[in-house]
Amino acid sequence: MTPPLCKSKADRDRLRQRVGESRKTQLKEIRRQVKRWSDGASAEDCMAAIKAAIAHIGERD
């Protein structure tokens, strides 16, 4: 079943673009935290930040 926000192809494309941008931002944050950890930052702090970023993957605004 198609969500009510996706009635036309343009709506689906806009939603897909928004979700893609959100995922790109989240993955960038995860990579940044892994780099901090490899540079010597606290593993607990980095994992907490990664966990927070992962918690929002797949959510839609």
Strand content: under 5%
Shape: elongated
**N- and C-termini, Cα separation:** 19 Å
Quickly count the helices: 2
**Global Rg:** 16 Å
Query: What characterizes the major β-sheet?
Result: none
Overall average pLDDT: 83
SSE series:
HH
Binned, the helix content reads 55-70%
Q: How many strand units?
A: 0
Provide key terms for this protein.
61 residues, mainly alpha
Please give a structural write-up.
The chain has 61 residues and is mainly alpha-helical. It has one domain. It is 69% helix and 0% strand. The longest helix has 30 residues, at 9-38. 2% of the residues are buried. The mean pLDDT is 83.
Give a quick rundown of the structure.
This protein is mainly alpha-helical and 61 residues long.
Any chance you could write out the topology, listing elements then pairs?
Layout: H1 9-38, H2 43-54
Helix pairs in contact: 1-2
